[in-house]
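User: Reviewer 2 asked us to show a designed sequence for the structure in our supplementary figure. I'm pasting the structure tokens here. Could you produce the per-position amino acids so we can include them in the response letter?
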């Protein structure tokens, strides 16, 4: 497996129903985790890149009703 994490901005405030749909995505379709940073209006998607492309992971998050806009490059500090 090859894991990849991407970050996207979203617009507006998320409803509880949208949050529930995001939780349901984890473990489905090769999406391992979806984290929301409400302060920065960011969604981080961790997915199995050996199963599908980034565009497909983004598609599933959008299909869950999350209004993703721009991709954001996030610098990750070493562990």
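Assistant: Here is a per-position design you can include in the supplement:
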């Amino acid at each position: 497996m090859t894991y990849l994490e991407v970050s996207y901005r979203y617009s507006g405030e998320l409803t509880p129903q949208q949050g529930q749909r995001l939780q349901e995505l984890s473990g489905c379709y090769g999406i391992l985790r979806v984290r929301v940073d409400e302060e920065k209006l960011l969604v981080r998607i961790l997915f199995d890149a050996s199963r599908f492309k980034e565009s497909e992971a983004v598609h599933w998050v959008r299909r869950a009703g999350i209004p993703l806009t721009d991709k954001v490059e996030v610098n990750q500090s070493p562990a």
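For the response letter, you might also mention the following. Helices lie at 16-25, 54-63. The chain has one domain: 3-72.
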